[in-house]
Amino acid sequence: MRSAPATRARIFSYLYYGLKRFNMHAVVEIVPLLLHASLLFFLAGLVAFLIPVNIVMTAVAAALLALVAGIYIWLTILPLLSLDCPYRTPLSGLLWNIVSSFTAREPSSIDEGQLQRDSPTMIESILRTATEFSDERSARDKRALIWMLKSLGDDEELAPFIEAIPDVLWGPYSRRHVYDGHIDHLIRAPDTLLLDRLDSFFEKFRRGVFAEEEKLHRKTIFYRALWAILSIYDHTDSSKTPPRFHNEWTYSMSSNHRHLEPYKCSTLALLGWHTH
């Protein structure tokens, strides 16, 4: 029977830590390991069988065995050298646990001691490395954003991205600076040129034939996104040099709708401050 979410979460946690305590991950990896071992033993037996038969065929089989064994050993070690490696063998997890047991540091607090006893698996270490804050993660985020923005081919796909920019930079309650560099990178990267994409988006709905409600919605998200981007840069901070903004935006932003007035006035004020 279905239970409350909190109860299901506790049951899942109870069973999951039972799997870890009884090393279920290691047991599951034994099955493909048996298949790999059978292949290596077969090649080794073939070499032993061919020794009295033909020395040339023995050398060929031995070379094949050495090649397979070398590749297998390399694929076993490679994930330990680079956690983002997509190749690994059943022995990689075992070797990871052995290396972790030797390199583990002494816990200095209760929380660290609990983490030490949990002994994270390779998959958990991959997830932790992928999500922890670092310069490498920031570079990956920027590459992913560039790929995503390049894949947004038309305005219907681009509109949700533009609409999300203010929430990313400001958040629900206050200004957030953690993603300033990402947006600035999208503006300056030659593969994306975010300001040019915004300009194209603005011109299409300004000159195109749209329903009044749709045009109002697009103008709103454009004003909010441009205002959020303009708020990144500060003339008093030399480390935040603003890019070149489109001067024609100042003369093109015309609307008599009272819903747009707060967004338009704030955006024009910041735009005038940056362009004059």
Question: Can you characterise this structure?
Answer:
The chain is built from 13 helices and no strands. 72% of the residues lie in helices and 0% in strands. With 276 residues, it is mainly α. It folds into 2 domains: 5-131, no CATH class; 135-275. The radius of gyration is 29 Å and the shape is elongated. It has helices at residues 5-21, 24-50, 55-81, 90-103, 110-118, 122-131, 135-151, 155-170, 180-188, 194-207, 212-230, 248-252, 261-275.
Q: Compute the gyration radius: what is it?
A: 29 Å
Enumerate how many helices there are, as a single number: 13
Mean pLDDT over the residues: 80
Question: Distance between termini?
Answer: 67 Å
In helices, the fraction of residues equals over 70%
Coarse morphology: elongated
What's the total count of β strands?
A: 0
Q: Give the SSE string.
A: HHHHHHHHHHHHH
Approximate strand percentage: under 5%
Largest sheet: none
Structural class: mainly alpha
* Spans of at least 5 consecutive residues with low confidence: 106-117
Give the total of domains: 2
Pfam families: DUF6535
Transmembrane segments: 30-51, 57-81
Protein name: DUF6535 domain-containing protein
InterPro entries: DUF6535 (IPR045338)
